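G., before I forget:
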Amino acid sequence: MRDHLSDGGLRPPLADRGITLGALFRCFLVIGITGFGGVLPVVVHEIVRKREWLDAEEFTEILSICQVLPGPNIVNISVLFGMRVAGLRGGLVSLMGLLLLPVALVLVLGTLYSGFADVPQVQGAVRAVAAGAAGLLIAVSLRLLWPQRRNPLVLGLGAVVVVAAAWVRWPLIWVILCFGPLSLLLTYLRMRRDG
Amino acid sequence: MDDTLLRLLGHLFVQSLLAIGGIYVILGELQRVVVVENGWLTPEDFTSLFALAQASPGPNTLFVTLIGWRISGLWGGVLATLVFVLPSLMLSALIARGWTRWSGQRWFAVLRRGLIPVTVGLLASSAVLLTLAAAVTPVAVIVTGVAAALSLGTRLPPVAILALAGVVGAFGLI
């Protein structure tokens, strides 16, 4: 198995990639105010594609850890990423960038919404945005799957997880408790075999 | 700070620790506490606040902001948000501190890479479930497909793609 992953591989550690606190704040500000119906596609767009602060594989690593931590994934990602870039200050700056404007906006919207909830155009737009958001999530799945396309463990176990979560509709906590340890064990055995 | 708000904050702190993978996991539990058990919100309120949180920019965590706001006003919203993100803030901070120190160690490499199959699988599952829920008319299926294609094939930011979708929907085509 290749070993070019974060902190100690081919790319310099995150703290040495020239990311300033201001850039961090602006990045998560953009993520916060442009993320509709799920923030993940925007995070991948801003951090992986546009700024290239992380490659797809490094991002998937961070997302993996954040997925098993309690709390909103995007909050975990912002703190974990920000702290690895610039310590505690980096983590707080990212989190503030992420939450400040959306919290203010949603409170304004909440006040306005009651007056517009029944307008057909508003209802249609909300439905269409939901359909578009589903499409964005499909694209993100494919984009993060792509670097793993020759990894039989990801393809095989990933398919089993899809069946369990999307078809049988297991609660998420079961999926993680059941397949997390299995996945760790198989990865460990595979890494030991490959040296 | 009134008693209702304090009790809400207590529930949110605990539920934040249970929300492994995001807020969707605890929606049922949240509804039980806020609507059924305490009657702080009506079922209709609960549903429309959730729709609103999804339709506005930012993480879905904002649903918690709206619940706090509806129950206890502006500061209720702000405090609910802070209490809800606090546990994950602390845990993520702990992991971030260890990341560099642990990066040479085998167990950490196993932990980082070993969950990728589950992550990719869960992500694909969310994509499937969201598509099944949203792409319910022929036009909606087309919107979903075009959005995926635009995201993969162009460098358009996600918000531009969703804005296009929103315009299609506002004209009553969906």
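Chain A touches chain B through 108 residues (CB under 8 Å). Residues 14-149 of chain A form one domain.

More on Monday.
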